[in-house]
Amino acid sequence: MTSSSPPNARSGGARVDLVNLVRVFGQTRALDGFSISIEPGEFVALLGPSGCGKTTALRVLAGFERLDRGQVVVNGQDLGSVSAQRRDMGMVFQSYSLFPNMNALNNVAYGLRMRRQRSNQRKQKAAELLDLVGLGDQAAKYPHQMSGGQQQRIALARALAIEPRVLLLDEPLSALDAKVRSELRDQIRSLQQRLSITTVFVTHDQEEALSMADRVCVMSKGRNEQTATPAVLYARPTTSFVAEFVGVSSRVPVERAGSDVLVFGQQCPVRGISETSGVLDAADALLRPEDVAIEVDASGKGFVTHRSFLGATTRLVVQVGEVPVRVDVRSETAAEIELGTHVNVQVISRDVLVAPRLAKSDTAAS
What was the pLDDT predicted at 277? Predict the structure, then answer.
């Protein structure tokens, strides 16, 4: 990579406001009043399960998908009547979408050519951008001669070449292997910070969203469930959907003890979420694996049923009555705990997340 200033560095990105977006396909409401505001230069990830509306929201912002209702506002301008070509958005797709008959340099320069920039200027700028993504020596190669990671970096350089007001990334890493995905994830984040470009990143991968974004918007059924920094989203989810979708949780039935709850006989303060108000009499604690600890005890009420090696830690599943509880244990300690070992489970978190108890039919379905 070059150490010179990026060719399209900006003093700040664009502000984006998506206001009450509604998009209906037949009987499906892909977007159902979806709203979010994104600050200039901010990196926001849209995270959610398949079919939650995240890609539709991105395509609406890009101008590739029409709206039934709502507004797309960029820097105070309503883009409802503005075509995709005139929105100054840079888009990177999951499938690379490079032109197979063009080499890397010409692929990057394509958008500049469409804007009728002079040949020598666009070639110089394309070369600078190839250097920026670490592929300056690949300018003459064609897509079929490059790896998936290299092709996606070419696609990123092409999107940046037009100096977009907003960079849109539609699951750009999902087709890559784990090592390349991790490397490109770091590179995208580094470039985004250097360029101060407003970026919207669609993913279903929690690790990508939490490690890359300034804020994460968790979507469900076409709506914004919660938007917050990764740390707040993980530690202080406001709905049970977010609490269970982000990270790993074990549902444990609790008993009310005044304004607290009893979990495995321990009295714990409640770190509530919005739906729990007034429902502590029929609630579950949502325990993260790091919220609990175990102690080997031959007369313990739980026993170990599964183990998953995760490197420095090992995740154990402890069956307590009818409830499976996930617990993270240091791997050297876990190596001494055999399947079937009886243990006691203890809550070590200073407070616990609480959500409404699921109906038996919902529990069976999950």
Answer: 63
